[in-house]
TrEMBL record, chain B:
GO terms for biological process: phenylacetate catabolic process. SUPFAM superfamilies: Ferritin-like. It comes from Oceaniovalibus guishaninsula JLT2003. This is Phenylacetate-CoA oxygenase, PaaI subunit. Pfam families: PaaA_PaaC (PF05138).
Length: 174, 284
């Protein structure tokens, strides 16, 4: 494995990572989510840099473990996982294909550029009715309402569709 | 808070060294003169989020409605995630072989550097939310200022945490308004919470030698510099919430940043640290 002539290429490793599912949302892979930031060889050690989604997300350790076990199954012997904080992960990195997969799975994908500003201005905008519109992943209706800014996992908010009346998760912007 | 390295390999220190080697270069980490103040300041950041995160997590399974229970648990989780980053960097700066877990689970109350505001009991939802709002409004200003930190390691933690704290302050300010400008009962409880917590809020803006040293090194703002922006947010939200800002001094209770705490911190640590004290080195 350590022999540069026989070890897998970086592209090959990326292909493998495209099959590693997110533990909470198994329809998307870790590479779909954009959390694998770099794959490189450091001598005879494969280095995979991973960035956390939410800083306290309990899935982070499971994601690391899943990546490690998946690559070990492919015969990677020497492996090092690096945690990379900067630049911080953003939902903008979720691929277009993954957004379709999320929607088909029943999770409304993030509306880019709508992360909480943390400023009073954002609240004022919402109170005056300029809130963001999230389409229902089930029926497509734009007539939806937010139930809570927080949801079943750190990355999601809870919404409800006023047309088909289904509750659904929204992958909130980060 | 065991991380993957703890679970899969016995040599955590070697992994920590490897991880440190892959981080952006930060000359502040090699500054021997700065080390004591930098370490203390990082503990203050991490201890604030650890203790508030623990307090908020006490609501898990006890929230008044499901959505609030979930929101509180998520907020606590974010804060504990920030704690791992701040105390992880503190351990690296200290360079004495301790980890973030050691700092969180094996320091006694006198070594904790959080402000007293975050260790006070939850009491009721009004106190919980008012305390969180007063803290969130400061947290946003602090992290925003730290984006410009001369320490790239501090700036990257701030950038990560700020994305989450934006959601925290949005929720807490929203609820302060809805409950303050709500029923007679909710209004009275929110006013009571504000009156009781107000004398603790000012500690967030009191500086000492540690703050002066990190400010001089270009790592963090002087605490007092954040006060005007904080007051603007607080005044606007309290006004909308029809709550009356207390007239008394807001910096009566102080000392948490220097390790002088209320009697409540010991009880939190007794619960939080029990496992590591009873079964030293236990991991899962």
């Amino acid at each position: 494995m350590a022999d540069p002539a026989t070890r897998p290429t970086v592209d090959q490793v990326w292909d493998w990572l495209a099959d590693v599912p997110d533990p909470e949302i198994p329809v998307v892979s870790v590479s779909d989510l954009g959390i694998v930031r770099e794959v490189r060889w450091d001598g005879d050690t494969l280095v995979v840099a991973v960035t956390p989604t939410y800083s306290g997300c309990p899935a982070t350790a499971v994601i690391d473990m899943t990546i490690e076990s998946h690559l070990r199954e492919q015969g990677i012997g020497r492996l090092r996982l690096e945690r990379r904080l900067s630049p911080p992960w953003t939902t903008d990195w979720i691929t277009p294909a993954a957004r379709d997969k999320l929607r088909a799975y029943g999770i409304a994908p993030p509306v880019d550029g709508t992360a909480a500003a943390g400023a009073a201005a954002g609240r004022a905008a919402r109170l005056s009715g300029q809130g963001l519109s999230v389409a229902c992943p089930r029926c497509g209706s734009a007539d939806t309402e937010r139930v809570s800014q927080f949801g079943s996992t750190p990355c999601k908010a809870s919404y409800r569709c006023r047309d088909c009346l289904e509750p659904f998760d929204y992958f909130k912007c980060h | 808070m065991p991380s993957l390295p703890d679970m899969t390999t016995p040599d955590v220190m070697a992994l920590a060294r490897d991880a440190a080697a892959s981080q952006p270069h930060d000359p502040h980490l090699q500054d021997v003169d700065l080390k004591p103040a930098f370490f203390d300041w990082l503990c203050r950041m991490g201890d604030n989020t650890a203790i508030l995160g623990h307090r908020i997590s006490e609501w898990c399974g006890h929230g008044p409605v499901l959505e609030e229970d979930i929101a509180l648990a998520n907020t606590a989780l974010d804060l504990i995630g920030h704690t791992q980053m701040w105390l992880g960097l503190a351990a690296e700066v200290e360079d004495a072989g301790r980890t973030a877990d050691d700092l969180a689970f094996l320091r006694d109350a006198m070594k904790y550097r959080n402000v007293q505001l975050v260790e006070l009991p939850n009491r009721d939802m009004a106190h919980t939310l008012m305390r969180e709002f007063l803290f969130d409004a400061w947290h946003v200003e602090m992290l925003t200022a730290l984006l410009q930190s001369g320490s790239p390691r501090v700036a990257e933690i701030a950038a990560k945490a700020l994305k989450e704290v934006g959601y925290h302050v949005e929720r807490s300010s929203d609820l302060v308004v809805r409950l303050g400008d709500g029923t007679d009962e909710s209004h009275a409880r929110m006013q009571d919470a504000l009156d009781r917590l107000w004398p603790y809020a000012g500690e967030l803006f009191l500086g000492d030698g540690v703050d002066a040293a990190v400010a001089k090194a270009g790592i963090a703002p002087a605490p007092g510099d954040l006060r005007a922006a904080w007051e603007r947010t607080v005044d606007a939200v309290l006004d909308e919430a029809t709550l009356r800002k207390p007239e008394g001094r807001f910096d009566v209770h102080r000392g948490g940043k220097q390790g002088r705490h209320t009697e409540h911190l010991g009880f939190i640590l007794a619960e939080m640290q029990f496992l590591q004290r009873a079964y030293p080195g236990a991991s899962w």
